[in-house]
Design goal:
The protein is an all-alpha fold. It has 15 helices and no strands.
Length: 302
């Protein structure tokens, strides 16, 4: 064996050892970036030396040129706070009622104006309120509400179909588009304005999109996204799938309150008392601060 071949083999062995060590470190220390680390390791193995030099150079440039200490000179950490007490406007508060109640009690003329004012704003956020006007005794109001609702839901169906097909092609931006589509769909699905069959079908689409993110962009998954998927599945009684996503949320975000509340809501709806209280005990032993909604849920089940 020539001397050059010997040095080449030594170089390959060293490169392989560095790659394996990096992979093991990433696998056990940075589980949320497993896919990214795997791709880097493949590059380092296929391009010995070059791949390692590339990643090291990019890391070094980041440390030198882009990482800066935060200037905290203007930040005040004093715990003293000034509380400004503003006197309540009692006259205004007496005339303020929830939108749903206003629709129920308003007369025909007032209801027409109310529905028209609603549709001048962000219609997507008020679909459930608009749907209540469909039962109005005033045919003009009911017709107008039905037209607005039908048009908005038709736009939703068209956009979801178009975006879902684009996402399935999995181009370089499909992860970002998947997040945008889930947020868009959730604004509609959370208001429950579809029929039970259509609601269940679109929740299935939402879960499919979330699965693509989970498989190809796990590092972009957030606890809020897990909660969204779990709650929508829970509403259509897909308890098996909901339990799977609850487990995934707990594995990736064991220190987030939403990981526990999703499980608690699932066990509450399926009347699994033993699992509910076991999860509740785990939550109590953790350092997570429990909010008012979770406390009310626990009191209700007890």
């Amino acid at each position: 064996m020539s001397k050059q071949m010997l040095w080449f083999l030594i170089f390959i062995v060293i490169n392989t050892i560095i790659t394996v060590v990096y992979f093991l470190y990433g696998f056990f220390k940075q589980k949320t970036k497993t896919r990214l680390i795997t791709i880097r390791c493949i590059v380092m193995l296929c391009a010995p030396g070059v791949g390692l030099l590339l990643f090291f150079t990019s890391w070094l440039c980041y440390r030198i040129f882009f990482r800066e200490d935060v200037d905290l000179s203007d930040v005040v950490f004093s715990k003293e706070r000034e509380r400004e007490i503003i006197r309540t406007n009692e006259e205004r508060d007496r005339n303020v009622v929830p939108l749903e109640e206003a629709i129920e009690v308003a007369g025909n003329a007032a209801l027409r104006g109310l529905v028209m004012n609603i549709t001048q704003g962000d219609v997507e956020q008020l679909l459930s309120s608009i749907s209540m006007a469909l039962n109005s005794e005033d045919s003009e109001t009911a017709h107008y509400a039905a037209s607005v609702l039908q048009q908005t839901l038709s736009e939703f169906r068209l956009k979801v179909s178009k975006d879902y097909q684009a996402i399935q092609r999995q181009d370089e931006f499909f992860i970002e588009r998947s997040h945008e589509l889930i947020n868009y769909m959730n604004r509609f699905l959370s208001q429950k304005v579809f029929s039970s069959t259509e609601q269940k079908a679109y929740v299935g689409v939402l879960e499919n999109v979330a699965t693509l993110i989970y498989e190809f962009g796990l590092e972009t998954f957030t606890s809020d996204l897990y909660e969204t998927v779990c709650l929508r599945l829970l509403e259509v009684e897909e308890y098996g799938k909901c339990n799977m996503w609850c487990d995934r949320a707990m594995n990736q975000f064991p220190e987030e309150l939403s990981s526990y509340t999703c499980k608690l809501k699932l066990y509450f709806n399926t009347e699994q008392r033993d699992r509910f209280f076991a999860t509740m005990e785990e939550l109590k032993r953790s350092a997570i601060v429990i909010d008012k909604e979770t406390l009310n849920l626990i009191r209700t089940f007890q």
